[in-house]
Design a protein that fits this description.
Helix content is about 30%, strand content about 25%. Helix 1 packs across helix 2. It starts with a strand and ends in a 17-residue tail after the last helix. The structure holds coenzyme A (COA).
């Protein structure tokens, strides 16, 4: 299978396709396609395509100059095993130019994979503030 990587600018990513990838992982049940559409317009995003099917996704939150955070890196289970996530991140990094530092939060199990994509890991603690609902 040939998987093509393209940014949201190059090949628009439909929000319902992202919703499907989230559903496959059980991620963010509360995110509506309307919210996802708004997020897709707010910052760089990249898709992995098997023909017309979206099989992978990654996006970033950024100030456009100095810092960015990669989010939502995911590849459909049927299309894993060929480092598609590394290609998604490479493409996301190009989209993010001239940002000099991209950070991400991840589970220990995927550290080796992100090292392959060029990430160095530090001893920093990660803090999260959550808006009370
Ligand atoms: C993480 C993910 C994007 C990688 O997909 P991919 O680019 O196709 O990666 P590959 O399958 O080619 O390779 C993944 C490597 O990391 C390992 N890996 C990935 N996820 C893992 C996990 N959850 N637990 C253990 N190992 C994992 C694999 O064993 C493999 O290593 P190996 O080839 O040396 O055995 C994909 O597994 C995925 O979508 N997972 C669910 C969502 C997720 O956890 N995203 C990361 C959020 S931080």
């Amino acid at each position: 299978v040939t998987i093509q990587i393209a940014s949201h600018r190059e090949a628009p990513i439909p929000a319902p396709a992202v919703r499907e990838l989230y559903d496959e992982e059980g991620w963010w049940p509360e995110r509506s396609t309307t919210d996802i559409e708004a997020v897709l317009e707010s910052g760089p995003a990249v898709g992995a395509w098997d023909g017309q099917q979206l099989v992978g996704f990654a996006r970033a939150v950024t100030d456009g100059r100095f810092r960015a955070y990669a989010e939502d890196v995911t590849v459909r289970a049927s299309h894993r095993g060929s480092r598609c996530s590394v290609r998604l991140l490479d493409h996301l990094h190009s989209e993010l130019s001239p940002v000099e530092l991209v950070s991400l939060f991840c589970h220990k199990d995927v550290v080796a994979l992100y090292r392959e994509a060029g990430y160095a890991f530090t001893e920093q603690e990660v803090g999260h503030w959550r808006r009370p609902s």
